[in-house]
Amino acid sequence: MSGSCFAERLGDLVAITPAEHSALERLEERERPVRRGAAIQRENDRVGDLFILRKGVMMSSMLLDDGSRQILRFLFPGDMIGLSSLAYREAPETLTALSDSVVCPFERAMLSEVIGVHPRLGALMMVYGQIERTALTDRLAALGRTSAKARVAAVLIDMRNRLRMMDKSIGDTFTLGLTQEEIGDATGLTAVHVNRMLRQIEEEGLIARSNGHVTFINERALIRAANYVDRYEGLDLGWLPSAR
Amino acid sequence: MSGSCFAERLGDLVAITPAEHSALERLEERERPVRRGAAIQRENDRVGDLFILRKGVMMSSMLLDDGSRQILRFLFPGDMIGLSSLAYREAPETLTALSDSVVCPFERAMLSEVIGVHPRLGALMMVYGQIERTALTDRLAALGRTSAKARVAAVLIDMRNRLRMMDKSIGDTFTLGLTQEEIGDATGLTAVHVNRMLRQIEEEGLIARSNGHVTFINERALIRAANYVDRYEGLDLGWLPSAR
DNA sequence: CGTCAAATTGAAAATTATCAACGAGAGTGG
DNA sequence: CCACTCTCGTTGATAATTTTCAATTTGACG
Fold it and tell me: Is the pLDDT of residue A1 over 60?
């Protein structure tokens, strides 16, 4: 074993030196499989390791006390997850596998070791944190100010784009891998209404569906309907100190 | 001038060495007043400096293309703001003063300098970032899964708690400093509905209102109505390397 | 074939938005 | 000091969106 998912992710942002790369590899020395449906961290449990997701799709969610669930974020290979362990004694969020997955657990102290030796990686992780933050604020604005249809469309686009990042062969057709209830928990809607919105989006000719697969028929219109902003253009990391 | 708002904030989390403290002070060497209503960063404008808010209350918001606005976060003294400049060429969010304020602008490169000399501060800023992130996810869950009344109540509680952090003399009565339209933009509601929810919360005996002041009459019930979770208990930074 | 989760549909109810109007208070210029 | 204007808060009536409830239907799988 030699690669580092997380280093690859950061490497998409800026050039990584071999020394930095091998420091990041230390975060992925251990591997742990997670079966579909299983949780590696549960809300209110004492926090433990952080993780790097190596394989599969997972989600981060919170339960409200009326029993409803809010999905905060879908997680893909190369994501560093469970970072809330850095600040809290008990986890504020649950981390669950949506498909059979593999995570690499590592201790919190390992992170400060890495930053201690390679401060530039600390700065880079702050950048990574801001990208994550902006994804959250986009979702916040979507929940607060866009229609049910737009929110459902946004989930479709976001899922396709992120799946494509890990598998370049994905084009306009992909496997969503979410139940309508899960889409509802991500968008703040009921499963019933998600169903109606999907149907409406389909009837308008923006997508086609067949047994779990979604095909974008009119991507431009879908993006418009979703109010979608692509944050992956427009990155600028020129201020980072150059690699040494 | 000698203090550092941001160092004070971090100092609430963990002990800061004098050397670290003076490094943080460099981030607050310049001061700039901002009048109520003025913006120090506008969505889609080329990003510039980062800021530390020294005085006043500000907000971070996004505009949607139908003209509606989502307030992402209220900002208080000691907050480091505009961090999205670390990752993007154009700002994803607007930063506006809600009251006459004072900010300390500093360059992005300054941040990597500080982290380079004091890696432990880099780790500490990641912790700070996770606290911010959790505040956002709590709001996300509130928008997605709680009633209008709960969301309005949550704004009241959050505002009171954060105002009290900068002014210990604040008890159950405080000046909200927000219009009902602003509360609506924060909660994803219309100003009209915010008005009705405030009235309802008042009629139920949870709060009292008089010209801009709010008084908590039954805080326990208000917290229950809001689904409020206090994240300031439960912090744990034991994993950080000790100060040297 | 039987079972179970997930998807689908219709009808009714609840929540929230929209529209339209009015009132109170703060500042402004004459 | 007095209109005048403007923003903000308030209220009622109505409309739109979304949820809830209650069945079915479909598809995967043992």
Answer: no
The residue count of chain B comes to 244
Contacting A residues, span 62-101, partner chain B, CB-CB under 8 Å = 62, 64-66, 68-70, 72, 83-84, 86-90, 92-93
Q: Residue B126 is nearest to which of A68, A86, A236, comparing CB atoms?
A: A86
Residues near chain D strand, CB within 7 A: A 147-149, 188-190, 192-193, 196, 211; B 179-181, 191-192, 195-196, 198-199, 209
pTM: 0.95
- Which contacts (CB < 8 Å, 24+ apart) does range B231-236 have? B231/A88, B231/A92, B231/B131, B231/B134, B231/B135, B231/B138, B232/B161, B234/A88, B234/A89, B234/A90, B235/A87, B235/A88, B235/A89, B235/B13, B235/B131, B236/A47, B236/A87, B236/A88, B236/A89
Half-sphere exposure of residue A109: CA atoms within 13 angstroms, side-chain side: 4
Beta partners for residue B214, in sequence order:
B174, B209
Q: Is the dihedral of CA B30, B102, B170, A64 positive or negative?
A: negative
Q: Give me the helix-helix angle, B119-145 and A108-117, nearest 10°.
A: 130
Instruction: Report the pLDDT value the prediction gives residue B199, as an integer from 0 to 100.
Output: 97
Structure tokens at B134: 């959790």
SS3 state at B60: strand
Spatial separation of the C-alpha atoms in residues B85 and A24, rounded to whole Å: 25
Q: What is the residue-wise DSSP string for A204-233?
A: TTSEEEETTEEEES-HHHHHHHHT---TTT
> B205 and A75 in contact (C-beta within 8 Å)?
no
Q: What is the pLDDT of residue B2?
A: 59
Residue whose C-alpha is closest to residue B35's, from B129, B99, B95, B119: B99
Q: By CB neighbour count within 10 A (0-12 exposed, 13-18 middle, 19+ buried), where does A193 fall?
A: middle
- Alpha-carbon distance of A18 to A118, in angstroms, equals 12
DSSP β-bridge partners for residue B55:
B102
> Element (H or E) spanning B38, and its range?
none
Mean pLDDT of A92-118: 96
The CA R_g of chain A, rounded to the nearest whole Å, is 19
Report whether B58 contacts B11 (CB < 8 A): no
CB contact under 8 A, A133 and B131: no
